[in-house]
Amino acid sequence: MNFNKILAPAAILVFTIGAWHAFQWAGIALAAGGVVMWILLHFTRMVTILKKASNRPIGHVASAVMLNAKLQKGASLMHVIAMTRSLGQLLTEKDAQPEIFRWTDAGQSQVTGTFVGGKLTEWTLERPTTDTPVEASAPPLST
After folding, report:
1. What's 108's DSSP letter?
2. Residue 19 CA from chain centroid, whole number
3. What residue segments make up the domains of the chain, in order of their start?
4. How many Cα atoms within 13 Å fall on the side-chain side of residue 63?
5. DSSP secondary-structure letter at 60?
6. Which CATH architecture has domain 57-126?
7. What is the dihedral of CA 49, 59, 118, 128, to 10 degrees?
8. What whole-number distance in Å separates Cα of residue 68 and Cα of residue 48?
């Protein structure tokens, strides 16, 4: 169960009732101003994150391996976009659940994340395979 959907409105309600008991109508105005400020702070953060992400190619990340190391189960899509500074490439149909996004780096390593209800549930790191064998030692130098 997502307690944030219950706790935030409950906290706003308790704050408003407390403000009413302490200051009457001035308290209601104070509580409303506080709630509006809180909403504006979240809106400003979201717009800033999306503005930074709009300047980068869709689905591109500096390092997929580092992104894989930083991801945590339950992270919001907005948090992942803030970490990557890029919108993910949507692999599913729009507004279908679960949503699957992919980020790729310059070395073609990919991180694919599955989001259910806007929260990260699982992710995988895919690294490109090399078909050329790696030499065990360097060739001898000619003198």
Report:
1. -
2. 34
3. 4-52, 57-126
4. 4
5. B
6. 2-Layer Sandwich (3.30)
7. -130
8. 23
How far is Cα 46 from Cα 58, in angstroms, rounded to an integer?
A: 17
Q: Is the pTM of this model over 0.85?
A: no
Interatomic CA distance for residues 89 and 74, integer angstroms: 19
pLDDT tens-digit readout, 33-86: 999 999 999 999 999 999 999 888 999 999 999 999 999 999 999 999 999 999
Give the span between the Cα atoms of 3 and 69, in whole angstroms. Answer: 27
* 85/83 Cα distance (integer angstroms): 6
* 24 and 1 Cβ atoms separated by less than 8 Å: no
76, 99 contact by CB (below 8 A): no
Tokens of 77: 């899509």
CA atoms within 13 A on the CB side of 56: 22
